[in-house]
User: Fold these one by one.
Assistant:
Number 1:
Amino acid sequence: MKKNTLKIRTRLVVAFLIVICTPLFLIGVGSVIFTNYQMNAIENYYNVDGEGIGAFSNTTKLLDGLTQKIHKEILALAKYSPDSLEKEDMLEKINGQLKDKYSFLLVLKDKEVIYNGSTSEDVKSIYESLNNFAYTNTDEDSGYYITGKYLMKQADFTFSDGTQGMFCIVTTIEKMVPEVQNLLTGIVLLIIVGMVVTAVVMTAWIYKSIFAPLKQLKKATHEIRDGNLDYSLNEISDDEIGDLCKDFEDMRQRLKETVEERLQYDRENKELISNISHDLKTPITAIKGYVEGIMDGVADTPEKMDRYIKTIYNKTIEMNRLIEELTFYSKIDTNRIPYTFDKVNVDRYFSDCAEELALDLEEKNIDLRYKNDVDKSTIFIADVEQIKKVVNNIIGNSVKYIGKDKGLIQIHIIDAGDFIQIEISDNGKGIAQKDLPYIFDRFYRSDTSRNSMQGGSGIGLSIVKAMMEAMGQAFGVENKENGVEFWFELDTE
């Protein structure tokens, strides 16, 4: 569809002006052409050459011109052959010519009508007028009205026997000037045709520029209603409808994104449930086995009983950790985690974290080393509780995938000017290069990492990502020569 740059308001104004001006223009031009054509015909017909439209201001002269030629011919007969006006065939011939001029002939001899070319009953009134008229008028351009319906032109003459005579040409006014009627009819028809043509053109233009885009928009709404979120509107125009279509397209894009996000969220939730179910299945199976062993008397010594109970306890701790992790992630996902930013001494905070973590890691045969390269008085600004979860989740991930009998985890604090960088590295087997860009995505797991011994919900690092983004801090991960290094930044005072 061709792009239309006119606003609807402008188009309506243009359409209004065209609807008003176009017929007037067509009527004006057409009237001039048609009037000139008709006036030429009227001038020739009424013998008023050169008079133009002004001839209509003198109806007597106009009507006189209609029968002027015949009038002159009768005058010539009356002068040179007056007795011929008594001959029936001659009179019929003349009257036949007058009929074409909406007129008829009367001939009187000694005030008696000897020929009447009309069958109208109104002739009686004409007779009466003639009886009161003296035989004195011979002016070829003369005429007078009778009863408001007729125009009388008369002339007197003398028959060869000396008898006074008179002939009259009577023109019917009601049937007069059909050409003028044709002129007016033509102008009216021209007005109607001009208005119809203009209306058709304007209707087509308005439909193309307004209703066609609305039809396309309607089709788009039906497509969206039926679930086709890929149906897009092409660029239509720069008017109000175009703006509406752009807003509709933005809505479609956002709706599509929302649906895709919802589908992705549903898939991730299903994956989470599957992961949690798998991770819970292992400790539950173990707990069930040890409980059955106790019930069956397998733990027949205090040492076995103590070992069985400790195992059950550890498995319940693992289950509780998984459930807490899931609950915490749910709070993050719904933005229900309040963040409280405090000013904290870098060395004191991270040395305490390292000391606390070292005890737990020692039991797992993992050595924790802490190194601080910043000034001991340096203060960082962050939510200390969430930072602790970040550190614990990163180290927890390293513990699960370190894959060595003797593990090593290092915490290194680096001064980077306006901020500090915390690096947490291990001596594990590293992360596959194809998995590295997605390691922080929620529920993401590499294909080789998922086993019952490693466990985990797959959301530990996604929690790290969510919390660091919420606090506006940079973070990342990269493979090193002897393992993996996670890092994140914190603002300093």
Number 2:
Amino acid sequence: MEHLLAAVDLGSNSFRLSIGRVAEQNGAKHIYQIDRLKETVRLAAGLNAAKILDDESVERAIEVLKRFGERLRSFHPDRVRAVATNTFRVARNVGDFLPRAEQALGFPIEVIAGREEARLIYSGVSHTLPISTDRRLVIDIGGGSTEVIIGRGDEPLLTSSLYMGCVSYSRKFFPDGIIDNYSMKQAELAARREFEVITKPYRKMGWDAAFGSSGTAKALFAILTEGRLSPDGITREGLEKLKAKLVRAGRVIPNDLPGIKLERADVLTGGLAIMSAFFDEMRVDVMKTGDGALRLGVLVDLAGREEAHDRRDVSVLAFTKRYHVDTRQSARVKRSALSLFDAILPDRTEQDELRHTLSWAADLHEVGLSIAQAGYHKHSAYILNNADMPGFSRVDQAQLGLLALAHTGKLSKAQNLVKNREQWLTILCLRLGVLLCRRREDVANLPLSVSVKGLSIVCKVDKKWLASHPLTDFSLHGEETEWGKVGFNFELIPV
């Protein structure tokens, strides 16, 4: 069965939209890109020294997103994923800008962490390369960040995200477009200092071939090959020749650089300095280019989620092992919480993603016990908010952290974090699931049922069961008080 998926990549230099047709061949799913949109936005150039995004850049971005939104108007929300990268990560006024951006696009926008960006980039690159057991080194020089990955097959082994990019470096070291030996050397030295942090583990692991996946890499490849500066793609010798040519000219002159696109001219120099530093630090001699990148990685991830090969499931499993979670207990809590969720929020189409989040939160709500029992829910929340969790966006992790924080104790601590009624009800399901399983014994049949109407919660409990469980009785009466503090009326009715 064929259908369409869409990925939106909100980069620091360009915004891109890719639409892929998913087709099954010989039992495997393949993605064929059928439409692409790309617009240069230069969002990173709109950041001032205080990391505030200026109004002009915001409005430019909004107009692009409106055009993307028109193309995506017929898509189901489950088949569109929009991710935002470094400029969104660092801009201090992103909270003001993001709701407008989401409204313009018509879909939620995930601000992803640097390592998650690196994972998705590698996924996109590996999807377009021949199947191989070789280790591959991939660099993606974006507008505001640079991702470096070593992977084998479809699996990334090392991932890093460094705070430098072609827009930020061009702006910092070549602000007036003038190129000289001193400025180029300073830009390279700055980039080498960034790469030094990761050089040792990357060299130790080693790789068989290097690939560049960004617009910078593709621009350099085109300039070097079409300008006859390097017959073998991106090479150390070719980069040196290009640097010398630019220094002699004193600036980027597009007519003198065959293969360059006009929109790339203003940020070429910063990207060249970063790539040259990468070659020196990693001791790379030759690099190929990969067609896939972040947006294709997002499409691959979306297709995987539809196949139930959700990368987030793998991350959750890894965390249960890493933090020595009692999986039997988390399974008990999950069964109880999901049973309540299905009764309270039966519209599975609308609430499917929220149900997934509840399931993962139930799996991981006790990760904080690995730190300390006292206040473990706070430790759990901190871990889930801040750890690198491949497949999860910052929004995803914030949801997990919220559920972990609110699954026990006072509800008032979560009041400023909850955005809607559905989140409150998801918290309710997890709290009751944890409460019912406190004895860490299997619960064959739930002794209670819950109904919700507006802000009224009615919890009916088997009175015989309640009489034999005085601690649970006490805890349920405590829920009446807690939910009252956050605006709900929680009524406990023995039946």
Number 3:
Amino acid sequence: MSKLHFAITPENRIAEINPRLFGSFVEHLGRAVYTGIYEPGHPEADAQGFRQDVINLVKEMNVTTVRYPGGNYVSGFNWRDGIGPKEERPVRLDYAWISKESNQFGISEFNRWCQQTHVEPMIAINLGTGTPQEAGYFIEYCNHPGGTSLSDLRVQHGDAEPYNFKLWCLGNEMDGPWQTGQMSADDYAKKARETAKILRCVDPEVELIACGSSSSMMDTFPTWDRVVLEELYDYVDYISCHQYYENEGTESDFLASFVNMDNFIETIVSTANYVKAYKRGKKDIMISFDEWNVWYLRGDPWDAPMKHKENRFKVAPPLLEDRYSFLDALVVGGLLCSLINHCDRVKMASLAQLVNVIAPIFTETGGGVIRQTIFWPFAMVANVAKGSALRHFIPAGTFSSRYGDARRIQSAVVHNAAEGKLYLFALNSDFHDSFTLDPDLSAFGQTRLAEHQILRCDDLYAKNTFDRPDRVAPETLTVSELTLPPLSWSRITFDIL
């Protein structure tokens, strides 16, 4: 067992952590909406059809924002289909997920669900089949107080007060060949520019997110991002990042996924900084990492259920329902550390998705709900990571991975000066070695170890099921020595006295 000496100081500050870093994502895909967050007639549903057992877990996770309604779905989305009396709403075919959309859950339902869950909405605009003008009509319906045809229509539909949505995504993954309305960077940038002008005309207080390249693996990356930002620098506040990880090499490679996330973020930051210099600009373009998670993509899983005619165009079919392991939870913990360590530029992030579809929360139709393994690292961080992220160095050495050298201990530190708390989050990726931490906290004055919560398991591939919902769950250690066991995820809390 190695004993690791290192210092943490409040002066070594990265930036203040934006609460929006702990957002999530709900798309009209599979059972994310229907039998996920919305299931009229369910024993746990309220009068509006919102499952309260799901809402309770969303609050327990401390999710701060939710991106909606897509995702790939948004590129064929017509916001008008989901407004007004439900019995008058049309049923449509969804081209993205080869499903049938009932439109029983629309923009007003989403707004009310956000009010119940206390999350901030992040609204995605259809720039695939949609137009800048339709985007203008959409925000007018949502945000304008009244006195116009569309704002008065919202009032007529029962919402006298405007929704006041402030976060708007200008499309989704528009460089992807899977995307309805795929286009070149130049074409997208021009369309997004005109959309941004209209959105800001209707509501000058909105914050806008430009659509970045679909992942770091795209041939278009990072040229797409440069071209888009050169056109949109004066019109947007953020550029989006999307990246998913899966266990497709060795387990060590998988645990090192945070290295790829680090490199991805730093490349985007460099690209944005180049555009700032090129434009002689004064503002920094920030990052919205608004899709990230573990997702087992091999074999085109979105396509496989549609191979047979009888599976096509069903309402809320079970799609992309990954059942996560303890190993997946460790990887998510490492990725969370990367987001915190880049909080100077990553101001928003969305774990994709929230319920049923590659999600931390999983429901039975008409039945119960469980926390998947990945629920835990997110909740352990999101509930306490308030204040400033601090630079630090834990001298644990590295191991080789497909992404390059990876730290054996991936960690993040958060200083909450207002509450007198210091938090250390740590992933021990080593398969055999424990590490005892010996942090020098003297710069904070007198401190004491308050708590050591740990996520560990004797089986890397253990999963939470309805029969064993707590197979993987955190425990609180009572020992005073700070030891990180092999293959574990920890949250360590110090009181500053």
Number 4:
Amino acid sequence: MKEVKKCSISGIAFTLDADAYALLSRYLDSLKATYAETADGDEIVADIEARIAELILSQQENSRVVETPLLRQIISQMGTAEDISSESETDAAKKQPRIPRRLYRDTENARLGGVCAGLGRYFDVDATWVRLTLFAPLLLLILVEVLPFSGTLSTFFSNLFGVFVLGYFIMWFAVPAARSARQKLEMEGEPITVRSIREKTVRDSETNSDVKSIVARVIYALGQLALIVIKIFIGFFIFGLTFAACILLIVLFALIFGLIGFVDDYRKVRQHQNEGLTARQKFILQLAAAVVFLVLMRYEGLLTNHLYIPFVNTTVQVNWILYLIFAAFVIVGCVNAVNLTDGIDGLACSVTFVVAAFFVSVAALWKYTTLGVFSSALLGGLAAFFVYNHHPAKTFMGDTGSLFLGGAVAALGFAFDMPLILIPVGIIYIAETMSDIIQVTYFKATHGKRFFKMAPLHHHLELSGWSEAKLVAVFSLVTLAGCVLAYLGVQGRF
């Protein structure tokens, strides 16, 4: 049997045969030696490592052994430090083909968040046209106001502008900025080689030399912090101008749950606490958030104690105290169920995408414009995020994202005044949760025996031989079936 070695390439674990490992070590050592005395040497080598990891993953699963021929091919494609000194820039440019562009925010040419500039780079059009497209509904809204039949058109263009603005802010938060040389080359579709990474890093270093001092760095960091605060306030301001109180509460509710997830992630990553928040702490914080949401919904007159039962089109009046207990249980359960589903690349994102599409359909059916706008924005945000979250994932959701999505789904269920519809819509969420409950209960009852190979359900199926792509596809289709059934079940409500 051939000897193998495990190593981490740009934070991703790989298994290499002994020859491939030795080859990679020599290659990286030569690069480190070449750029050891340069100011940006570490950044250049880090970008090269990240590109090597991407090229390996594009050709095989990281669970497979990386063999020497594949690594030789990748090194040949990337080039060596020696090649740079012996090859002219023109010859190098002719030798390497362009690569597919990737979507990033272009902060260097930004007017606000770099979203339009990034979209312009991705579609290879001038960013001005993207910005004009963003504001086109507003301009058309102004123009149609003079028409005698402007009522319908005004509503359409105002809603469309709201969707565009909300989508912009979601992409501002969801789409990463192109900061490293590798990311900027990917954004531009330029070949990623040792030469191109080095030259791009040097150019950026010269361009940004004005922020190299300690004072400048502090000022820059404070500016970035202020920008984040401004983003949040602008977002809430636009929400307040454009949408009703209901959607504001939904966004606020989802953000609170996202904040709980952020605290948990922060304690795990930055403070090196494996557990993050304890189960008790999470439950108390989530329950408090649910209670606040329900109280505000009732105060605004957006929550009733009339429980709608789909499929039979019956509404049952429930005692307020019992209804609030039920509602809090549903919210906390839904949020944690979505969190459990986020166990493999793209799973929670794809399943929730289908759920968001269901709410968009219901909003269109019942003409709930404001809820439709939020659901559409959630749908678009998940679609954009899936580009980076599908296997092999380049961006992970974490508890911050999964708890936010769980809060959004639960809030939409109550905003549409049909929380019971979350049962067929969230059939995968329920299955994941029940598998975890069954596993724990069976383990305790049998003193150590397991009902599933591993819980929740997606891990059991993964150990049974299902690929991540198959899991995402099957779970999304099951969710789609549940959503279609749910859509049919609410047809007769109004």
